[in-house]
Structures are given as structure tokens and as C-alpha cells.
């Protein structure tokens, strides 16, 4: 079961990527995350194989591993437990002259238990993906403006 959202952002892909990968600050711009902890000394900044724990309201804390990472484009993280695998994708594409971008966030529940959890928590998952996308858009645009990068008309 997959939950996804796409938002256009008035900031460059590089700028959005910088906000998105500064995971220790996610709690500042999305209510869906309480805390992100590095599980190894070199986990942050993100790289393939980084292990992190994400603490969220209404769900148990989960350990995530970075499975793919492309600078200024995005990353994929996965969390596994018996019977379930959850994959979260965070991808950016530049738009127009590069001062705007399009962000696609998704979370996919696989495995027999994962699909059940995805269905049982459908409304929460839809709300969390939307809140994260809205928060990322807001934070990216605000920080781009404060860095002196004008929005496009």
C-alpha cells in the first residue's frame, strides 16, 4: 500500500535537498516527527547505509536505513520488522530555470503485516505524508527567501 504526494516548491532542488536532508531539524518544520537520532557516529549527514531512528507521534519509533541517495535529487530510506517493510521516498526534480522544484514524498508498506498496518493506519499515513510535504514546502520557501533568493512570479 502506497501513500504519495507531490508539491511544487518556490526554491531550487539544491535548497530543498539541504532542508530535507537536515533530518535532525525535521521536528522544527513537520509535526509528524518528534526526533531523529543518528544510530552510528557517521550517520548524519546522510549517506547510503546511514542508520537513523525516527520518533513520531502515534507510531512506535523505527530504525531506518538509507538505501539510495542522490545529491540535490533525494533519497530513499527503509525500515524493516518481522512481516513488514516500509519504504519512504523523498525525491526532488528541478523546474523551469532551476529556481523552482517539484517534491514527491511517498511511503510504501510491503509484506503481509506491512500491508495490514498500511490499511489500518490509512488516514494517519495520508495525513502524515501531506503534513510533511506542506512543512517541507513552507520551510524551503521561507529559508530560500531569508537567503535572498526571490520567489518566481
Structural overview:
The radius of gyration is 15 Å and the shape is globular. Strand 4 and strand 5 form a beta hairpin. The chain is α+β, with helices and mostly antiparallel strands and 153 residues long. The chain has a seven-stranded antiparallel sheet with strand order 1-7-6-5-4-3-2. The longest helix is centred in the C-terminal third of the chain and has 25 residues. The protein contains four helices and seven strands; from the N terminus they run E-H-H-E-E-E-E-E-E-H-H. The N and C termini lie far apart (37 Å).
How much of the polypeptide forms β-strand, as a percent range?
35-45%
Content-based structural category: alpha+beta
Based on CA inertia axes, which overall geometry fits? globular
**SSE sequence, one letter per element:** EHHEEEEEEHH
Mean pLDDT: 95
The main sheet orders its strands as: 1-7-6-5-4-3-2
Weakly predicted, low-confidence segments: none
Q: Radius of gyration over alpha carbons?
A: 15 Å
Please bin the fraction of helical residues: 25-40%
Number of DSSP-assigned strands:
7
- Helix count, DSSP H or I runs of 4 or more residues: 4
End-to-end CA span:
37 Å
For the largest beta-sheet, the strand count, sense and barrel status come to: 7 strands, antiparallel
Amino acid at each position: 500500500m502506497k501513500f504519495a504526494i507531490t508539491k511544487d516548491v518556490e526554491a531550487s532542488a539544491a535548497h530543498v535537498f539541504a532542508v530535507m536532508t537536515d533530518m535532525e531539524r525535521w521536528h522544527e518544520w513537520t509535526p509528524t516527527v518528534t526526533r531523529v537520532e543518528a544510530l552510528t557516529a557517521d550517520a548524519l549527514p546522510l549517506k547510503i547505509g546511514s542508520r537513523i531512528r525516527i520518533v513520531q507521534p502515534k507510531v512506535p519509533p523505527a530504525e531506518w536505513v538509507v538505501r539510495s541517495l542522490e545529491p540535490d535529487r533525494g533519497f530513499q530510506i527503509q525500515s524493516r520488522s518481522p512481516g513488514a517493510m516500509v519504504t519512504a521516498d523523498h525525491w526532488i526534480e528541478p523546474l523551469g530555470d532551476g529556481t523552482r522544484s517539484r517534491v514527491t514524498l511517498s511511503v510504501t508498506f510491503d509484506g503481509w503485516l506491512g500491508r495490514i498496518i498500511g490499511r489500518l493506519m490509512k488516514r494517519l499515513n495520508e495525513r502524515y505524508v501531506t503534513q510533511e510535504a506542506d512543512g517541507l514546502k513552507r520551510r524551503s520557501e521561507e529559508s530560500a527567501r531569508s537567503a535572498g533568493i526571490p520567489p518566481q512570479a
